[in-house]
Amino acid sequence: MGCGEVLVRYILFISNLLFALAGLALLGLGVAVQLQGTAVIDIADSSYQVAPIASMVVGGVVFLIAFFGCCGAIRESNCMLITYSLFMIILMILKITLASLIFVNLDSLVQGVPNVLNDAFNRDRVAFQEIERAFTCCGPTGPLSYMNIALPETCCASQPCTPLNAYSGCDKQVQGLLETFGLAIGVVCIVVVAIELVAVVFGLCLANHARNKNRRSHY
Questions:
Q1: Radius of gyration of the chain (CA)
Q2: Distance of CA 25 to the CA centre of its chain
Q3: pTM higher than 0.90, yes or no?
């Protein structure tokens, strides 16, 4: 076994290890958004649900394929490495698409939060208290959203709940969540694509080496 082959195998193994960790990061970010924003997602339209679900699905698939690539690199299986590289290319396309959708639509989603929260608040103020509890906030824009109505317990950290000790509005809190996790998911997608590109190149090189070695062994 030559030094070049050993180097390729180790680079492919290390890149897949990073790839698996990035996949877990995507999965974790998706779960974090889903758990933290459950109250908002339940009342919002489907456009607010796409990113966390897609992140969890892609992250899980990424981790499994990275494990597959590690096995292919260790065994030097031409079939496994080619299959692995094809799956990686497909995943690269999917993640570029996901990152593009996030970066293109993030501003419009963030700007649409006040309207979504106002509609939810006007439709069912009792249900809106789940959002206030999850984000420690009060009303869409603050305690003045309730006008002359008594503030609910979810609006304050201590009782009695008054405008003086009430939390700030929920719109800023939810917008901050979307901006933070949206950018994080998009950046992780780009990082994963860069790692995948390296893995694909070295995977194909190792697959070519394995195929040539099998041919020579038959002579």
A1: 24
A2: 7
A3: no
Using an 8 Å Cβ cutoff, are 5 and 12 in contact? no
> For 26-54, what is the mean pLDDT?
65
Q: Could you tell me the two tokens for 83? A: 């299959």
Query: In whole angstroms, what is the distance from residue 166 CA to residue 132 CA?
Result: 11
Look up residue 169 and give its amino acid. G
Helix H segments across the chain? 3-36, 38-43, 50-75, 78-111, 113-123, 125-135, 170-217
**Residue 30 vs residues 36, 111, 200: alpha-carbon distances, Å:** 10, 21, 25
Q: Which of residues 198 and 138 earns the better pLDDT score? A: 138
Is the CB of residue 48 less than 8 Å from the CB of residue 40?
yes
How far apart are alpha carbons 149 and 180 in whole angstroms?
33
- Given a cut of 60, whether residue 186 has pLDDT beyond it is yes
The string of pLDDT tens digits covering residues 145-174 is 998 788 999 999 888 899 899 999 999 988
Distance CA 53, CA 61 (A): 12
Q: Flag whether pLDDT at 42 surpasses 60.
A: no
Both tokens of 22, joined, read 């990035």
The single-letter DSSP state of residue 166 is B
Phi-psi category of 142—alpha, beta or left, where left has phi over 0 and alpha has psi -120 to 50?
A: left
